[in-house]
Amino acid sequence: MRRPSRLKPISESLQCELTNKSRANAPGWLPDDQELSRVLWYVLGGARGGETRAKILVQLAERPCNMNQLSNKLGVDYRTITHHIGILLKNSLVVSEGEGYGVAYFLSPRLQLNIQDFYRICAELGFSNSSGGKPS
Fold first, then answer.
1. What angle do CA 128, 50, 99 make, to 5 degrees?
2. Are 74 and 55 in contact (CB under 8 A)?
3. 115 vs 14, 36, 54, 60, 72, CA distance in Å?
């Protein structure tokens, strides 16, 4: 049986400060994660298929899925999903867990931390069927 911790909970402001300091010291991360913004602009706006990739990311933000589930939910061919997931993996926007056909895809922790930037960029790109800046 685990003993209850005697440590006091960290205040919310201190938690935010610790998170920001650890992000600032992480290799490859720029202040306010400008690098991630550049990657999002490239993957979503600088190449064909950006809106499809945005829809995949929105779906994964709601719930992790495998490629077959994404294909069915978005009404997109399985091979197309495979192509776009490959691009999202290569650009570290999603991570995978599992093996074979059961591989589930999740948003990367980095994208989860900066999800508001993703939605802002989608809104600026004017992706259709958006609600509150979120592609659907």
1. 120
2. yes
3. 21, 10, 12, 12, 24
Residue 105: half-sphere exposure toward Cβ, Cα within 13 Å:
25
Hunting for tokens 């003993």 — which residue is that?
3
- Per residue in 79-107, pLDDT (tens digit) is 999 999 999 999 999 999 999 888 999 99
Q: Which helix (H) or strand (E) holds 135?
A: strand 134-135
Can you list the domains of the chain with their CATH numbers? 33-131 (1.10.10.10)
DSSP output for 54-77: HHHHHHHHHS-B-HHHHHHHHT--
pLDDT in tens, 13-50: 434 444 444 454 555 544 567 899 999 999 999 888 99
The predicted model scores a pTM of 0.72
